[in-house]
Structures are given as structure tokens and as C-alpha cells.
Design goal:
The complex is a heterotrimer of chains A (404), B (200) and C (205). Chain A has 17 helices and 8 strands. With 404 residues, chain A is mostly helical. In chain A, a hairpin with a 2-residue loop joins strand 4 and strand 5. By secondary structure, chain B is an alpha/beta fold. In chain B, 18% of the residues lie in helices and 20% in strands. Chain B is built from 4 helices and 7 strands, in the order αββαββββαβα. The longest helix of chain B has 12 residues. Chain B is elongated and about 70 Å long. In chain B, 36% of the residues are buried. By secondary structure, chain C is an alpha/beta fold. Chain C is built from 6 helices and 6 strands. In chain C, helix 2 links the parallel strand 2 and strand 3. Classes of the chains: A mainly alpha (404), B alpha/beta (200), C alpha/beta (205). Chains A and B meet through helix 1, helix 8, strand 6, strand 7 and strand 8 of A and strand 3 and helix 3 of B.
Chain lengths: 404, 200, 205
């Protein structure tokens, strides 16, 4: 240190200070694996944050152009991989909108039920991971235990725990099992019990509340201008839920509330998700009462549906139809369509362009958490380094969806 | 879907609108690229339209026609609950002049969306505060979602290990060639730059 | 449990026994192997959907802690098992390589899932077709995502290999290989004289 050349009064000495650059690298426990934040810090305060995504870009949109319309379903599963059924249903609805198909009632109820189960699983994962990142490991384990119960039901129905690929254009891969309603009625109360235990542990904890309250606040107007949708937007006070504003499937026949927050901070986003789990429980109870127990699940449009296996092996017409649907793909009429549903994170949109052949011309996914993560740098600038963890956790950035 | 949106737009910007349609219930307007930002500002600020949420921005490549690249913007109004799709066409055969004005100043949410369109399709947005790649790494050359970019052309950042180093075969074994499992009758787009010998 | 073989035509499997003294020549080696295999400090390099199954593995139902492999260490300097969970994109590859190089010997790598093993069905401009193009790998666990039981199989296979000091890469094979068990499979069509294809092959050899 150089000696001072002149006498200075107390408080007049200004030391030159460079900001510190810190890299919250792409392999980091709290970055959900795949986001890099390059920070400029002044002490603990963030002066500038550059959020870099793209570490899980898997070329979803390019891969869709290589297969058929039905081969997109496995790719779509892996977009928002904590609620894959919602993605499946969203894509199936988009293609059906383009064809002008309406699936039978039973299929609509079934899609809703599986979608709500996926939504419960999504919110449990998000809130559990958020708690874990703040140090509360036990509620995380409880929520994961609840999630296992949801996955048990989904495994019984679709055959897979996580990436089901269960949706089909014009229906579902298989009809519901005989025990579907009993499984739901039996499991959901247990899940709610676990959620309540987690709430009891977390929501009265002074440390947890201090870390979440008034952290990462955003106003409703700013959130809308950023393109936010879903629980993050509803926490800021804007009551936009696609299921309520633009009902699809049978959402206009079930009663449910849309939880809305007041402050738009991280705690509100946490609470909105917990409240939505309860609303999903309500919807599931009503679906179990209203879903017919028999009837077709798939529509019988020969342009998109595969014929019965027995017919395929015995008649030539069914063999040809089967062959053409598998090898060339269902010929969806030329045109473009934008179809949107309520995904786990918000408005999940698919913009499809067809040129009339069996291969998609363009499949664009409108990922809800892409825009939400776009707002992250605004949320954390000016706050402290340790506020990144709960804020980022509350946004529920799913790498597969954000980076498609 | 009410016809209000398209009619108001047609009244206000008669000359700039090339075509409109409402197929499948989606109101769509194709506009001239010069009026892109003006129309966007009008859609945002007109009190009856009030499109306050930028839903999506993407681009679709149509190599068969000129102009080649179509930039598609979806907007939503949380207060009036209506939607619109606004499209414009830019770029010639070789994708020169593929430029549109940036609407980031109108909706901050378009920031990342425009970066993504630039990254994937190569459309430049004039006036964007920070136009750089978002999903691909900066060393990547080319724009993957263009039809003439071969799907399997990789540009590795890290050199792959050799088989001598690994001591065992690392390549894919037959029967999985690069065309396995793909649809018959797929269009093969002629690639502008030769890829790794594979077609699209 | 299976070993990777170099000739693609055959499907020989070579079972290695965990307690065999084939490779570990001294009692000290055996002791070190025992200690290492039951105290693996994991570095979870989690990228994608397989991360959900990784979370499920740490959960009470499929408990990884009973195999000693629970403790996650988020610094590569302190970890000895690199779990590569999920797809590795070209952008992520240098990061993966750096993390692997920062780990200290002895270190092992577990490729969790098909994307990490061979790129999965993402055969495109942005995915590395398997992490073994970038770093060496010890055990490959196929599945998209693999069931937690399959991952535990892989972990136990790795523990056997650590015990015996074997560094040859291995894949977790299904418990029952359908190619070797023909009973119970529905036959759609049999060849002449009612023999299955497998029986005919066996006859020829």
C-alpha cells in the first residue's frame, strides 16, 4: 500500500474498488444443472448479472423436422420433464386443432386427470427443491415421497414413471386402467397430508420466511411485459390461467380457484404453487366423479389413428393404413396453428406449421420458463448473492424446456 | 374470436398489411417489414387492443420462395383476452438482408426471444441492446434452424477422444445408420455448406 | 452383470464376481477396495430429465445411502465418483471435461441414462454422442430415464469393479436377457417345422 501524500479527513478516503466477477457455473447444485450466471459483485451485492442458458439445448425443433408427427411425442416429453403429460397433451391438442379433430369425452377427462397429476408432481418438485436449496432437506424428502406416489399412479397407467410418451394424435396410447379412479381417490389424500406436513415445517420457520419474503419482487405489469405466465405471474397479482381464461378440454365443467399472490416475491411464488396443488386435488376429485367409465378413448379417424392390430394382421387395407401412418406419418393438412395450454410453468404454446406431408415443417414450442428466466437478471440485480438461490428456485426453470 | 383486432389493424395500416386470415381461429396478419415496429407499437398502445404480453417470437424458413424467412410474432392481451399473430417476410434466397427492427423497447420480454431467433435462424434485429447467441455457444458458425443447415453437423468445442486413447470402439455400430427410423418421403433440403457427409 | 465386448457380433457375457481375488492381489488392495466402494463421494453432474430419477434415488424409497453413495460433494476436488446424469450438449462438454480433470485419482465415472451413454435419440448438431467421447467412463446405465433399480444395479456393478480393481468399461444388462430366455414369449409366427429363429440358430452352431 502506498503512503498517502496528503492528510485526509476521516471519511474522505475513497479506496478504488473493482467489482468482483464471479461465475455461478453451469455445473452447480442450485443452478438446476444447466444455467450459468456471470455476476459482477460489489461485496455481496450484485451489480450486474448475465444469465446464460443453452447448456441443455438439444435441438428439439430441428429433430421434429426429421420424423413424423407422431414421433414428436417422445421429444415433447423431455421438454418439461417434471410434468411430461402436460406437454404430451398440449402437443396432441395442437395437432388436433390443425386437423379439426375433437377427441371423445372420456379421453378429454383422462387427459385432464393425467395432466393434473403431472402438475402436482411439477409443483412438488419445485417447492421441494427450493426448500432443499435453502437447507431444509427433510421437506424435500417428504415432497419427493409424495411425488413417488404420483409416479406410481402414472406408472400404472402409462408404463413409465417419468417420460411416458402416452399422448397420441386423436387420443391416448391406452385407455385408463380399471383401477384408475380408485388409485387417485386413495393416493391424493396421502399426498395432501405430506404437503401439509411440509407446510407446517416451513411456513412458520422464521429463517425460511426471511429468506423468501420480499426477495425477487416483480410487479404484475413488469411480469406481463416480460411475457411471464403461470404461477410466477399469478404470484404477482395477475390472474391469468389458461384453464380459466381460455378453457380447453373440460376445464369449463369443473370448479376450481386460481390462486393469486399479492406481493410478487419469492414467498408468493412458493405459496401459489402449494395452493395450486390443492386446486389440482379439487379438480381430480371432480374428474373422478364425472369421467365416464366406458366408451372410446381414441377417435376413429383413419387419417391419424392406427387400426386394430388384429385387422392389421388379417386385412390388407389395415396393413397399408398402418404402414403409411408409421412410415410416412399422418398427413396433417397444410397450414399453421398456435395452440396453448396451461403447462406446469405457464402458457405452454405450440406453433405448428404443416406443409401437408407426414413430416412436420416447423414445430415451435413456446416455453413458459424461457421468458421467466429472461426476467431473472432483473430480479437479482441489486440484491445479494445468496438471494439468487431462492429466487432462481422459485422460477422453476426446467432446463429441457428453457433450452429446448 | 372477434374480428375486432384484424379490422382495426386493417383500418389503421391499410397499406402495410399484405394479407390476413383467421384459419383455425387464429387471427393472423402479414405485414411489410418496414412497418414492423410501428405496427407493434400501435398494437401495444391502442387502448382497445392493448396487447401487453409478448407471447412468442419465432421464424420459419421457406427456402422455396423469396422472401425466404418469415418472422412470426404472437401477442396476447391480458385485459381484453384476445390474441394476434403478426408475420413479416424478410431475406432473399441466400438470406442476405434478413433484418427486422427490434421490438425490445416495446416489450422487454422480446429481448431473449429475439436473441433466440438470431441464434437459430440468423435474423438480425436492428436496435437490439445485446444481440448475441443464446442457445448455442459463441464459437458456433451457422444458424441451425435454417433448412439448409444439416441436422447432424456438429461443431465440437472439445475434441472427441480417439479410439486408441479409449482402447475400444467409440463409433456407432450398425444397423443404426444416420437415416434409421426416419420418415419416408421426407424432403431433403440441399445443404448450403457440405456437412459431415450427411443429409438433413 | 456384463462387460462390454469388442466384437459386435457375439453376445457373450462375462460375469465378474465381486469377492474374487482375480485383480486385487494383496489384502491391502482388497481392504482399500472395500473402503472405497462403500464410501463413494458423488459429484452429481446433473443436466436433464435423468436428474429427476437421480432425485428419486436419493429419496427414502430407493435410498442410495444404504450403498454408501449418498453424500454429494459439489466440488470435484472432494468427489471420487462423477455421476453424469442427462444429456451432454456440445456447450456443456468443456465443462464436463474440466470437472473430470479437476477430480483426483482414484476416480470413477458413471454414465446415467442413454443420453450420457451414447447421446440418446438426440442425433443432432448440439449433442455429444455419449460422454465417452470426452472423458473415460466406467459403467453405462441405459434407460431413458433408467429406473432407480437399474441405477442401483449399475452402482453395485461399479462397486464390484472397484473391489476387484477392474477398469474395463461395463454396461448394466437387463436382469433377464430376452435373447436368452425364449419361454414365455408370444410367438406370432413360427418357421417351418415349428421352430423359432433362435432354435434354428442354435441348431446351426
Amino acid at each position: 500500500m502506498e503512503p498517502l501524500d496528503q492528510e485526509l479527513e476521516e471519511g474522505e478516503l475513497v479506496l478504488p474498488a473493482d467489482s468482483m466477477h464471479l461465475n455461478l457455473g453451469p455445473s452447480h447444485p442450485a443452478m438446476h444443472g444447466t444455467v450459468r450466471i456471470v455476476l459482477e459483485l460489489s461485496g455481496e451485492t450484485i451489480v450486474k448479472a448475465d444469465v446464460q442458458i443453452g447448456y441443455l439445448h438439444r435441438g428439439f425443433e430441428k429433430m421434429c423436422e426429421r420424423g413424423t408427427w407422431a414421433q414428436v411425442f417422445p421429444y415433447v416429453d423431455r421438454l418439461n420433464y417434471v410434468s411430461p403429460m402436460l406437454n404430451n397433451v398440449g402437443y396432441a391438442l395442437a395437432v388436433e386443432k390443425m386437423c379439426g379433430l375433437v377427441v371423445p369425452d372420456r379421453c378429454q377427462w383422462y387427459r385432464m386427470a393425467l395432466g393434473e397429476l403431472a402438475r402436482i408432481s411439477d409443483h412438488l418438485t419445485c417447492d421441494g427443491a427450493m426448500a432443499m436449496e435453502l437447507g431444509a432437506f427433510t421437506p424435500f424428502l417428504w415432497f419427493i415421497k409424495a411425488r413417488e406416489m404420483v409416479w406410481d399412479i402414472l406408472e400404472e397407467e402409462t408404463g413409465a414413471r417419468l417420460t411416458h410418451s402416452f399422448g397420441r394424435i386423436g387420443g391416448m396410447a391406452k385407455p385408463p386402467t380399471a383401477a384408475f379412479k380408485d388409485l387417485i381417490r386413495g393416493t391424493i389424500p396421502k399426498i395432501i397430508d405430506l404437503v401439509e406436513e411440509g407446510e407446517k415445517m416451513l411456513l412458520k420457520n422464521r429463517i425460511f420466511l426471511d429468506r423468501l419474503e420480499n426477495v425477487g419482487t416483480i410487479s404484475g405489469k413488469d411480469a406481463v411485459a416480460l411475457g411471464w405466465t403461470g404461477p410466477c405471474l399469478r404470484a404477482s397479482g395477475v390472474a391469468y390461467d389458461v384453464r380459466r381464461s381460455h378453457p380447453y378440454l373440460k376445464y369449463d365443467e369443473v370448479e376450481f380457484d386460481v390462486p393469486v399472490g399479492t406481493r410478487g416475491d419469492t414467498l408468493d411464488r412458493f405459496l401459489v404453487r402449494l395452493a395450486e396443488i390443492r386446486q389440482s386435488q379439487r379438480i381430480l376429485a371432480q374428474i373422478c366423479d364425472m369421467m365416464p367409465d366406458d366408451g372410446p378413448v381414441n377417435c376413429d379417424d383413419p387419417r391419424v389413428m392406427l387400426p386394430e392390430k388384429h385387422d392389421v394382421y388379417t386385412t390388407i387395407e389395415a396393413t397399408i393404413q398402418h404402414f403409411k401412418l408409421i412410415m410416412e406419418g399422418a398427413k396433417i393438412p397444410a397450414g399453421e396453428v398456435y395452440s396453448y395450454t396451461e403447462g406446469g410453468n405457464g402458457e405452454l404454446g405450440y406453433y405448428l406449421v404443416s406443409d401437408g406431408t407426414g413430416t412436420p415443417y416447423r414445430v415451435r414450442i413456446r416455453p413458459p420458463c424461457f421468458q421467466i428466466t429472461g426476467g431473472l437478471s432483473k430480479l437479482i440485480t441489486g440484491r445479494m448473492l445468496s438471494d439468487i438461490v431462492p429466487t432462481f428456485g422459485s422460477l422453476n426453470m426446467i432446463g429441457g424446456e428453457c433450452d429446448h | 374470436m372477434s374480428k375486432l383486432v384484424l379490422e382495426k389493424l386493417k383500418l389503421a395500416y391499410e397499406g402495410a398489411i399484405l394479407e390476413t386470415h383467421s384459419n383455425h381461429g387464429d387471427d393472423t396478419a402479414v405485414v411489410k417489414p418496414e412497418s414492423w415496429k410501428e405496427i407493434a407499437q400501435y398494437l401495444r398502445s391502442d387502448p382497445q387492443l392493448d396487447f401487453d404480453m409478448p407471447t412468442d417470437l419465432c421464424a420459419v424458413d421457406y427456402p422455396g420462395r423469396t422472401p425466404r424467412m418469415e418472422v412470426v410474432m404472437h401477442l396476447y392481451s391480458t385485459t381484453r383476452k384476445h390474441r394476434i399473430r403478426v408475420k413479416t417476410r424478410v431475406g432473399d434466397e441466400d438470406l442476405d438482408g434478413c433484418e427486422v427492427e427490434s421490438v425490445t423497447s416495446i416489450w422487454p420480454g422480446m429481448d431473449w426471444l429475439e436473441r433466440e431467433v438470431f441464434d437459430m435462424n440468423g435474423v438480425t434485429f436492428k436496435g437490439h441492446p445485446d444481440l448475441r447467441r443464446i442457445l448455442m455457444y459463441p464459437e458456433f458458425e451457422g444458424h441451425p434452424l435454417r433448412k439448409d443447415y444439416p441436422c447432424q453437423k456438429t461443431q465440437p468445442l472439445v475434441e472427441y477422444r480417439t479410439e486408441e486413447e479409449a482402447g475400444r470402439p467409440l463409433a456407432k455400430l450398425p444397423p443404426f445408420g444416420h437415416d434409421e427410423g426416419l420418415a419416408f418421403g421426407r424432403k431433403h433440403w440441399p445443404t448450403a455448406t457440405p456437412g459431415n457427409g450427411e443429409e438433413n | 452383470m456384463g462387460e462390454l465386448n469388442d466384437s459386435p457380433a457375439s453376445t457373450r457375457t462375462l460375469a465378474i464376481d465381486g469377492n474374487e481375488h482375480g485383480f486385487a492381489t494383496t489384502r491391502v488392495d482388497a481392504l482399500l477396495g472395500w473402503a472405497r466402494k462403500y464410501s463413494l463421494f458423488a459429484y452429481p453432474f446433473v443436466t436433464a430429465c435423468c436428474g429427476m430419477e437421480f432425485m428419486a434415488l436419493s429419496s427414502p424409497r430407493f435410498d442410495l445411502a444404504r450403498f454408501g453413495a449418498e453424500a454429494p460433494r459439489f466440488s470435484p476436488r472432494q468427489a471420487d465418483l462423477l455421476w453424469v446424469v442427462g444429456t451432454i450438449s456440445q456447450r456443456q462438454a468443456p465443462v464436463l471435461k474440466r470437472i473430470y480433470e479437476q477430480m483426483m485419482e482414484p476416480k470413477w465415472v458413471l454414465a446415467f441414462g442413454t443420453c450420457a451413454s451414447c447421446g440418446g435419440f438426440y442425433d443432432n448438431y448440439t449433442t455429444v454422442p455419449g460422454l465417452d467421447k470426452v472423458i473415460p467412463c466406467d459403467v453405462y446405465i441405459p434407460g431413458c430415464p433408467p429406473r432407480p433399480e437399474a441405477v442401483m444395479d449399475g452402482l453395485l456393478l461399479l462397486q464390484d469393479k472397484i473391489q476387484s480393481g477392474d477398469r474395463r468399461p461395463a454396461i448394466v444388462k437387463p436382469r433377464e436377457d430376452p435373447a436368452q430366455i425364449a419361454e414365455g414369449l408370444t410367438q406370432i409366427r413360427t418357421g417351418k417345422a415349428g421352430k423359432t429363429a433362435k432354435a434354428k440358430r442354435d441348431e446351426e452352431t
